[in-house]
Amino acid sequence: MKANDERYPDYPLFKGLQRPLELMGLQGRYIYWAAGAAGGAIAGFIIAYCLAGFVAGLVVLVAVLSTGIALIMLKQRKGLHTKKDRRGVYVYARSKKL
Prior knowledge:
Shape: flat
Radius of gyration: 25 Å
Number of helices: 2
Structural class: mainly alpha
Largest sheet: 2 strands, antiparallel
Oligomer: single chain
Strand content: under 5%
Number of strands: 2
Distance between the termini: 70 Å
Strand order of the largest sheet: 1-2
Helix content: 40-55%
């Protein structure tokens, strides 16, 4: 057997590696946003419960969760790579170097 006839072992090729991470309909960075919204809602509930009572804690919990979910859904609809789209004509002055 010659050195050129040697066959390398086959390895499986994962074609989905360039796709964004997805968990329960949330993609990419919005998974972290959802975790932050849930953590913030729980922390807000605990603080409001200690300061004002159970009903105030529930109000804070619902408000933070609903705001977080609405923000995530609006941002995710625009896409993962949203950029600021400033319209208009911009003129950049050249710097004078001596």
